[in-house]
Specification:
The protein is of the alpha+beta class and about 475 residues long. The protein has 3 domains: about 90 residues, Flavocytochrome B2, Chain A, domain 1; about 220 residues, Sulfite Oxidase, Chain A, domain 2 (Alpha-Beta Complex), CATH 3.90.420; about 110 residues, Immunoglobulin-like, CATH 2.60.40. Helices cover about 10% and strands about 30% of the residues. A hairpin with a 7-residue loop joins strand 21 and strand 22. The termini are far apart. The structure holds ligand MTE and molybdenum atom. The site of ligand MTE has 19 residues, from strand 8.
């Protein structure tokens, strides 16, 4: 074509995320996006695609597949990929990067919702023990598992003063006291499918998790407050600009928590390198993640690279948008008007039903959990639609940590299920006497967050 500038793939590759002028391709077009990067709403994540094709990334971030985004990109077009590098007018598959190259093999027993990125819930058998077997721990990845070299991995901490300090993994392991904390992680979308079924006229947006976007493990690491003190933060008077601890993962995910949670000597916020007595697996943040016990799992940032102590919350969409709740009447939320979810409300679920071979009693079991380290004090079960209740037996599990950061397992025997069986309902109460709402109409929100109404499962012959 007349006047078209063509570029070879070798040259495009040299304009990667580390170069002075990063380029990307989309289809067969080439763009110099140097001037767009500072304005990119998703931040630096776009650098990952530079030097190659945007297409596999836009397949993940499907938000980009819109006319206005295409138009913005067109402003930066500088030419076309040379026909010498195309086969049948297209880039050969081998030259298109696979963002998921470092994703590990997964246990086939996990219940997969999406494979790329990996989102999978713990199956019933994994919800039964107090500590979830690591291969069955639920996985919630917004993007790919970032490739990391443990020997090269480091953590940089920036304080409001501008002071910066970088730690290798070895520094963290050798220079600080190691602690082990038992903590349940729960996704804000756990049990979203229940809300969707209960309010079918409105539905919810997001992954349709059943009751398995929750798991419990023993985490080993060093206390973030110890490391912040070493980095130069005055824990007793951190100053007016020290309000939030922002965390960044190696792929692009980020979130923050109030600094008060870190400073609390009973807050138990860990920089964790161990899970259930072994190194963290790739899916759960290898080699380093933050564990924020008692808070929504979205704050426990995996593949941790950077911590910034700041006067404001993390600016990511995961802090400022997605993980918030609004009234059931709100269709288009003003995101700035609600606080980010941190401590989650009390919830419970039925996760297993064991029926004896010939008649007899039916054993029902499940979990109950509350945020903020609030211990579960009671689990109530009803087999007559909530007219009468009885108490389930709480298992005596005890974890490690300053507060009750872990779930409580419970079991209940149904004396006689009758000929037809029926619905078993469960609700839990925490130490602050918070309890679960009866149904979903009053807590419905479009994102389907904090879906925590009474849980019901049909139990009966033939189930
Ligand atoms: N950290 C990074 N870097 N990337 C992510 O996608 N997902 C968050 C949180 N930390 C996420 C992350 C969310 S929403 C949840 S629920 C938990 O990780 C899930 O932790 P898990 O995969 O170890 O169960
Ligand atoms: Mo989550």
């Amino acid at each position: 074509k007349e006047g078209v500038q063509y570029y070879r793939l070798d040259e495009i590759r040299s304009h990667d995320g580390a170069s002075a002028r990063p380029w990307v391709t989309r289809g067969t077009s080439v763009y110099d996006i140097t001037d767009w990067i500072p304005a990119h709403p998703g931040g630096d994540v776009i650098l990952r695609a530079c030097g190659g094709s945007l297409d596999p990334y836009w397949d993940i971030f499907s938000i980009h597949k819109r006319k206005d985004v295409y138009e913005i990109l067109e402003e930066y077009k500088i030419g076309e990929i040379s026909p010498h590098d195309l086969v049948d007018g297209k880039l050969p598959a081998a030259t298109v990067p696979d963002p998921f190259i470092a994703d590990p093999e997964r246990d086939p027993r996990l219940k997969t919702l999406t494979a790329r990125p990996r989102n999978a819930e713990t199956p019933s058998e994994g919800l039964s023990p107090f500590l979830t077997p690591t291969p069955l721990f639920y996985v919630r990845n917004h993007m790919w598992v970032p490739p990391v070299e443990p020997n090269e991995h480091s953590l940089t901490i920036t304080l409001p003063s501008g002071d910066e300090k970088t730690y290798t993994l070895e520094d963290l392991k050798s220079r600080f006291r190691t602690h082990t904390v038992t903590a349940t992680l729960q996704c804000s979308g756990n049990r979203r499918a229940d809300m969707t079924r209960a309010v079918p006229d409105k539905g919810t947006n997001g992954l349709q998790w059943e009751a398995g976007a929750i798991s419990c493990a023993e985490w080993t690491g060093v206390k973030l407050r110890d490391v912040l003190a070493d980095a130069g933060l005055d824990l007793a008077s951190p100053g007016p600009d020290a309000k939030h601890a922002q965390f960044e993962g190696a792929e692009a995910y980020g979130a923050s928590i109030p600094l008060s949670k870190v400073l609390d000597s009973q807050g138990d916020v860990l920089l964790a390198f161990g899970m259930n007595g072994a190194p963290l697996p790739a899916d759960h943040g290898f080699p380093l993640r933050v564990i924020v016990p008692g808070n929504v799992a979205a704050r426990s940032v995996k593949w941790l690279k950077k911590i910034t102590v700041s006067d404001e919350e993390s600016t990511t969409q995961w802090q400022r948008r997605d993980y918030k709740c609004f009234g059931p009447n709100v269709a288009k939320p003003d995101w700035s008007k609600a606080p980010s979810i941190q401590e989650m409300p009390v919830t419970s679920a039925i996760t297993g039903i064991q029926r004896p071979e010939a008649g007899g009693k039916v054993n029902v079991e499940g979990y109950a959990y509350s945020g903020g380290g609030r211990e579960i004090v009671r689990v109530d079960v009803s087999i007559d639609a909530g007219k009468t209740w009885a108490q389930a037996e709480l298992m005596g599990d005890e974890g490690k940590g300053s507060k009750s950061w872990w779930w409580k397992r419970w079991r209940f025997e149904i004396p006689d299920e009758g000929d037809e069986g029926g619905e078993v309902l469960v609700k839990a109460t925490d130490e602050s006497y918070n309890t679960q709402p009866e149904d979903y109409r009053g807590i419905w929100n479009q994102r389907g967050n904090l879906s925590c109404a009474w849980h019901g499962v049909h139990v009966g012959p033939g189930e």
